[in-house]
Amino acid sequence: MSAFAVKADKFVLPGCLKGPGYLTVADGVFGTYAEEAPEGVEVVDLSGKWVAPGFVDTHIHGFFNHATTDCDPEGINISSRELARRGTTSWLPTTFTESVESIGRACRAIAEADESRGDDFVGAHIQGIYLEGPFFTSKHVGAQNPAYLIDPSYEAFSEWQRLSGGRIKKSALAPEHDGSIEYISALAAEGVVTCIGHSDATYAESLAAVNAGASCFVHTYNGMRGLHHREPGIVGCAMTTPETFAEVIADGHHVMPAAVNALVRAKGWDHVVLITDCLGCGGMPEGNYMSGGLPVVMRDGACYLANGSSLAGSIATLDSVVKNVFDWGIVTAEQAIRMATEVPARSAHIDGACGFIAPGRAADFVALDPDLTLSATYMAGKLVE
């Protein structure tokens, strides 16, 4: 169908929540919202549902047994297809701490995956690349490989950016490293977001990074110096810098509901980014896998390093964490949705391409039950089967 109207109880629009009403879709892009049914077009009846922008995951390493570390373009496209089935219509494939050469190969593979897509491809859009590493500290390395930790290098970044075809949108680092301020400043001048994480930086070091241009915190609470009343640390900096964004993995394993609530109360929901940090084994049965070159075990709804020393990453999907923060009573349904759509898009500077229902944009949207259970995903106006 080239043109139709979606009927639903609620629509999460850029300025407000509207509905019941109708949203037109023509030739794969959004039209306008109206309270009355437009004449002469078919109506797709989603009565009882909420219609929202497709979810935007800005920190995710892969899905359905394919990871960015595989350097496999087709695997990345398989991940994209499976993510779309679960409501995520845009993502930033996220790399790990590996050798400079391996990260370069991953960047090139992601670019090749993006370039290979034809008009008939149905899967989550690659809106850029997120470099999670290798500029971290060993004290909070977590599930990153400590063998490849290095100081920030703009030279290395420039080569990765070249190999990616200019797709890198975010880069994470530990700001206590030598050269961090210069690296942050250089990336900020190019419009690339710098994130603070996997770090033992003090509050003062973190604040210096923010003042140099860093604007996001990597999976807040996890992999960083925590909040203490005499040394607020990175968590304290995340909570007290109002214009920065704070990622959080609200899966109930990495961060408990009360801690998510504390972060939301400190920053406001509109600066808290729901992410999954999902590993390549996400969407697969429990068992043993490899992630970032390290053996991991997936069990009980989470993923752990095989040696038992740390959580390795999550296996959550964005639709599940959206439902969590609503079910936990932390935010309203509307706010939960925006925390996985417009907020991540703004945090990664990709809000010109995704995160909103607006006329002329690709008609990527989800239908949700009132309790925020995912009901359906549409990409370019087509139901994802």
Describe what you observe in this structure.
The protein has about 375 residues and is an alpha/beta fold. It is built from ten helices and 21 strands. It is globular, with a radius of gyration of 20 Å. The mean pLDDT is about 95.
| Unreliable stretches covering 5 or more consecutive residues | none
Please state the overall shape, judged from the principal axes of the Cα atoms.
globular
N-to-C CA distance: 16 Å
Number-wise, the strands total 21
Number of H- or I-type helical stretches: 10
Summarize the structure.
This protein has 385 residues and is an alpha/beta fold.
Keywords:
single chain; 385 residues; alpha/beta; 9-stranded parallel sheet
